[in-house]
Structure formats: C-alpha cells, structure tokens
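Provenance and format

Records in this collection were gathered into a single text stream. Each protein contributes a sequence line and a token line. The two records reproduced below are adjacent in the stream.
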Amino acid sequence: MNKSVFKPHGLEKTIQETINEVQAIYLSDSFPWVIGYSGGKDSTAVLQLIWNALETLPVHQRTKPVYVISTDTQVENPIVSLWVQKSIESMGIAAKQKNLPILPNILKPALQDTFWVNLIGKGYPAPRHKFRWCTERLKINPSNKFIREVVRDSGEAILVLGTRKAESSKRHSVMSKLENQRIRDNLSPNQSLPNCLVYTPIEAWTNDDVWLYLMQKPNPWQYDNKALLTMYQGATTDGECPLVVDTSSPSCGDSRFGCWVCTMVEQDKSMAAMIQNDEEKEWMMPLLELRNKLDFRSLGNKAEGDRRLRDFRRMSGRIQLYNDRLIPGPYIQSARENWLREVLTAQAWIRKNGPKSVADLELITKSELDEIRRIWVVEKHEFEDNLPKIYEEVTNESFPGAPLDDNLPFGASELNILKKLCGDNDMRFQLARELLDIERRYQTKARRAGLYGELEKALTRHFFKDKDDALAFAKQKQEIKTHLFTAAREAAATTTT
C-alpha cells in the first residue's frame, strides 16, 4: 500500500519543501526545462508546482526558459483536446502577465505520420499489440523532435515529467532503476535522448496526494482544477471520485484519457462513461461506434479478425506464412474507402447534432485528405481518384482540394472497359492499372531510367492470381526449405559419423 507523502509533515510543509527543491534545481545551471503537459492530473500538478516555484523567485533569477509541450495527436478524446487547448491558451496569457519564462507549445505529428494518413491512406491496420505503429508516430516523434532542438541549441535540457511510481509496478521498477543511475540529485538519465536529464518531482505521490494538492491549491493560470476533477469523475463508470477518505477507498486517478480511436484496449471505458454519465456528451456516440468498428476483435471471431478487409500481401507485395496462414497486409482499397466514409459521416453528424463547441470539429483535416488522395493516386496507382467523390457524397459539399492530376490516363468509362477486359479478376485489373500508370508517369520524362525497375516491381507484386495461389506457393516454398534443411542436417550427421 503506497503511503501519502503528506502524512509525515502535512500538506503545507511538504509542498513548500518540494517548491524549495524545484527552485534549487532550476537555479543550479543554465539549461532550459521542458515540461510534458497532457492536461491530466499528474502533469497539471507538476506544472502547478513549478509555476508556483518560479513565481516566488525574484524576477532577475527567472532566466531559464521553461517550455511546456503538449502533443495533439489529432485523434485525442475531443473533450480532453478542447480542455488542453483552452488551458494552454490561458497558460500563455497568465505567464506573460506574471513575467514568467513559461512558454507553452502544442505539438502535432508530421502529416505523413498522422493516424488517418497511415490507416486510410497507406492502409495500416488498426493498431494492435503486435503492430503498435501509432504511439511513436503520433506522440513520441513530435515531442522528441522538439526536445532535440532544445538540446541542440542549449547543449543540454531538463525534461520534467509527472510520472509516479504508484502508477503501476512496471513504472515503479523502471523509475527505481533509473534512480540508481542518477548523476545529479533528483535528475535521472534519459534512455533515448542524449544530454537530457529527467526530473520527476511527484514521483513518490499517490493518486490521492495529487488530487488533494489540486483541490487545496488554486490553479495559477486560472484554469479551474475542480473542472478537471469533474472531467475525471465523468470518465469513471460509477461516476464516483472520492478523495479525502481513508486509504482503502478507490480513487478516480485510474481514469485513462487517450486517443478515441485506440484499439490497444478492448474498450474505451472513459469515453463510454462520459456518454453514460452526461446526456450533453451523447454527441460522442458516433466516435465510440467508429472506434468499435476499427477494433479487429469486433470483426467476427478473434481468429479471423479483420483479415477480410486486408490484402493477403504485405505492403511491399511480399507474402509471409505463419502457422500455414498468410500474414495479412494493409487494408484493401474498398476497406480504405469505407473507413473514409465512416470518418466523414461521423464528422458530419457531430457538426450537425453536437453542441456549438464542436460545430467545426475536424476528425480528419483538409491536409490529411489531400495527402490520402495523393497516396491513393500516386503511390497506389488508384487513378480512379475516388476521394473527392466520396467526400461530396457524404458531406454534400464540393471537395475543397485542387485537381491532383489533369492527365489521368482513363476516366470512369475507360476503367469499366479495362475491368471487363480483365474478366472481373481484381488482381489482373490491379496489375494492368499499375502498369499503365507507371508507363504514363515515365512518358514525358527525357530519360526513362528506372522504368524497367518499376515495371518489374509491379509484376512481382501482382505475381499471384489470387490468395489461394499465393498460399499454395508459400506452402510449397516452405516444404522445399524444410526438405533442404532436413537433408543438410542428415548429411552433416553422416559426415560426423
């Protein structure tokens, strides 16, 4: 059982000791600080401590910048996203008024790394434990890029985080290990960012310690901590969030806010609870429904999952066998187009039926739509260019993007003829379409170097006539490899004898 840090000396004295520690570390060198802020209780508590520590320093000692970074994955829970955005705005205004070197920043993933560009554009399947492609692209890369730039300009940086040992046994183990490697008081090395030390001022706090502090001490950038408590309370199934009670009472600290599209967990309990506990949040139901459709566990039996929506080939066109089954690759064209319809439909419904605060909600941005369209037409050779048509069908609005290419080889009627010529065999149609598109792209080039290589890749990618043909080929290849391995082993044994 984790004990409260406030019990030995009381809240006021413990907080003052922590503020003294923050000030001492801040004044000990010239390196800037970077605070990770998610808008949740832990990062709010850490930022509030540091804010109060800086505010009680003389102005001439507030020399080092303190960057506050918040990563907007663009698929965050909309309630939390709006909360963070407004909090960051309030923070920036208050810091200027109080002459504090606190500089808030909202970071976003690069366009090619966003969730919908990868899932709808490239066809990456919804994230799962064996293919968790989202976290690094959406969260880690933007923050690491920012921190590396700070380190490059200053030589070193202090990364301040709200991580706590009481969060989980795994977190406790990792933090304890890093604690033993400390080269300066209270500063741990960072395993992935050179010249960046980590400071965790509330590492020993419990959930109830965090809430007690937030409820007893007012938010210095004038953003109500009680509203934060209400948000956590609304995200718990039973709507309860006890705080100042005995240690056996549950805390609402286990509420987890994250991406509304997350399929790493079986259920989005926080969003479901928000909808259940507050009629005014029922407008989020389309998001919960779309998230459940993305979850491969909901698409038939768990063994089959989302295989019917995915190509039997990997992204490169290769095939791979596991337990006599082909490992599925990216979403096929029809699945990607359907996911786009689903997102646009949810967006249109929320804009029409939700409150004024979400009247302009963008589940998918214009720049993402343009990039998805480019990937479909240019990289996947789907020169039907269906994205504008899907957008107009769902929204009843003209697609805002400019024509991607005025020289597409065929229109709808010609494509229908091509499909008939291919005998309604989709694999043949894909091959013919790709070969024609490759030839067209090289047609106007003065030097056509690389054409044969591209044609060879296309022929290799479409080598099999269908999934069964690919499976039979893979099994035959595996049998040959097994036979050769067995023969080599027997030959080695005979030679030894």
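Adjacent record:
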Amino acid sequence: MRNAAATAVGIMLGLSGLAPNTALAQFSPPVVPAAIDPATLFSRQCGTCHVADAAGGPRQGPNLRGVFGRKAGTFEGFAYSPGFAASGIVWDETTLDAYLTNPQALITTSVMAYRQANAGTRQTIIGWLKEQR
C-alpha cells in the first residue's frame, strides 16, 4: 500500500513539473516543540498574578515561594477572599492539584480565575513550586 501511495505521488509530481523533494517536503511530519522548562511554564501560566521568589511581594495573588506546607490564606501582606483562611487547607500536592483544576470547587470564595485541565501541566507547576522553598 505504501509503494502504491509513493507511486501515485511520483506520478502527480511528474505531471505537475515539481521536483520530487519539493513536493515531499509538504508531507513531512510536524516538528515536535522542545519541552518547556518548569520555571518558564510557571512564569507563562502563573506569572501575571504570582511570583515565587524570596524578595517578591504579592501581585494579584500571593507570593508562592514556600507555599508547600503553608496554611491557605496566611501569606503576610495579601488580602484574601472571605473564607480562604478559614478553609483550613494546608498546601501539598493533592490540595494544589485540586485547586489548580478548579479553585472554586476547593475554596468556594476563591477569586482565582485560572483553571488548568491538563494534569501534566499541573504536575509540572506543582513540582516546580515544591522546589521553591
């Protein structure tokens, strides 16, 4: 079957007057983009509202440096939505995964608009945040 397809392409090329390599380049498989590093992913997905560095203060959201093991709603200097601190949540892999999937399902008063449906993207962000102590 593959030889028949190649023969058909060759006949079409001959009739079109195109050089074989020119036309076959149109059938090349797509180039797979390089994997993005976790810090860049965090910056692109979360950086508008959050920082994760020792010197950074809050933006639209709290600084996420040291978020692992931190009780929700306790970053000094950030005004949380009502009920956020009262949630009793301590941030770990499970709670962050649930929160990034659907913030309002975990904390109904959360005002974070970001949701990430892709589990791999969530795990990359969470893994990177875990390293930011």
